[in-house]
Amino acid sequence: MGEDYAIPGQEYALVFAAATLVTFLITGGVRAVATAIGAFTPIRDRDVHVRPTPRMGGVAVYLGVAAGVLMALQLPRLSRAFESSSEIKGVLVAGAVIVLIGVLDDRFDLDAVTKLAGQILSAGILVLFGVQWVQMWVPADNPEGGTTVSFDSVQGAAITVLLTLVLANAMNFIDGLDGLLTGVAMIAAIGLFVFSVHQLVVSKDDTSASQPPLIAAALVGACLGFLPHNFSPARIFMGDSGSMFIGLTMAAATTSAGGKLDTSTFGGRSTVALLAPLIVVLAVVFIPVLDFLLAVVRRTREGRHPFSADKRHLHHRMLAIGHTQRQAVLIFYLWAALLSASAVSLAFVTDAQPVAWLTAAGVLVALTLTLWPWARARRLRRSRAGVG
């Protein structure tokens, strides 16, 4: 493969373009089918939309990702990603299963146990196709500053299934505003793409190391193609078919990039750089998992079922303090970009201090924008109270 590795940028661009174009063009047809079969999101008390909107958008996203993968099969360098492993095929097969479960739920509202069984089945298919954690680098008190922990097949499979379940349900939790899940998933996938391309360049392995960026590139394109249909005011929703498929795809790409990180290739890189895959995972799931945990704790303390619905998710609170739907979604995009960029940048630097300062500045800006309507309303109330 040569001393210097050249990134196949044009080929990744073709994968991205194919996924974007196919998703954008086919979403209208999916919307028509969803309307014809009655796969609508009903108007519930906790919802923010005001008219029945068709679901099943995940079908279009899946077909877009599949188109990107099929495009890669026709390209000389990216086709090598299919030679050493069947992981990408596993993403398509498992994705088809979880999208089918999601479509049934979008139409018939399946119970939680049935959906969980479908998620476990899909995650198990990923494992059968070789998508599982093999080793993980952890910090330790030794001259090398860390050690590599290896997993057997059962442990690796369990971690993969658990990560898939967490991401599939976390992505579902964040899907509450028009374009929110689509944009956050796209930003997170961009972060994974950048990191996994960096890993590819360092390892110079255009077989197994080229699988994560290929999956990520196809997902970025599919999300971008779907976003014009889904941004406020949305004409079609992701539905469970979309949120669960995106969660599964993100889990597969993250596992492939982080779970199989070759520590010997990275040699004496800093501890922070070697931990970057784990940081990327935390950045990807931070917003939906935080929302998920807060919701479970809140409902449990109130004596309700932890998975019962309410109108106090993070995105509901954003609307309550005065943001419009579009403002709330754009602010969530900012937080997602800040987290992903901060995590991925650690893989490119040996000194984490500049990244920490830039992240702190970004957090300050994001907090200011997030709380501005609340602060303004509070100042107005105080002003009126003073006049009164």
From TrEMBL:
It is a multi-pass membrane protein. Its cofactor is Mg(2+). The chain crosses the membrane at residues 12-38, 59-76, 88-104, 116-134, 154-173, 180-201, 213-231, 243-261, 273-297, 328-349, 355-375. One of its GO terms (molecular function) is phosphotransferase activity, for other substituted phosphate groups. Keywords: Cell membrane, Magnesium, Membrane, Metal-binding, Transferase, Transmembrane, Transmembrane helix. One of its GO terms (cellular component) is plasma membrane. Its main location: membrane. Mg(2+) binds at N172, D240. GO terms for biological process: cell wall macromolecule biosynthetic process; cell wall organization; lipopolysaccharide biosynthetic process. It is found in: Cell membrane. This is Undecaprenyl-phosphate alpha-N-acetylglucosaminyl 1-phosphate transferase. It comes from Nakamurella endophytica. The lineage of its organism: Bacteria, Bacillati, Actinomycetota, Actinomycetes, Nakamurellales.
